[in-house]
Specification:
Pnp Oxidase, Chain A, seven-stranded antiparallel β-sheet, alpha+beta, oxidoreductase activity, about 30% strand, F420H2_quin_Rdtase, Deazaflavin-dependent oxidoreductase (Nitroreductase family), coenzyme F420 binding, Split_barrel_FMN-bd
Amino acid sequence: MVDATMTHTDEYIQPAQGWVKKQLEAIDAAGTTDAAQVHDRAVVVVTMRGARSGRLRRVPLMRVEHGGTYAAVASKGGSPEDPVWVHNLRAHPDVAVQDGTEHHAGLRARLAEGPEREEWWERSVAAFPPYAEYQEKTDRQIPVYLLEPVKPA
């Protein structure tokens, strides 16, 4: 299980890409995801375990939320392949999300399909309109993962 209260950055594998690293540094310094908006749109930080390493990774994603569930849109800017973090969700679906200053642990990722995916795709495009352009750039259907609270057994 990923613990959303973990804040010691040494426990995470640091991102290789400069812009992601800068976003996470700004968020960590401010204590809120509000410090790293993209195109004046809110982001969240998803904490997940690496598919191979099992070590924690943090990924800033556009904020798409409805009723306590978050969408993780695997757009990669319309690239023909999924972002690397998709492999992590498939291998280790238990995640945590930082939204503003709030930390949500106990979420599980699953792929949205059919009418549910279409409903969440519309929400995602409303939250970040460039997603529609990204879909036009690629032949793959951009996956939408739902990050939902785990229901007690």
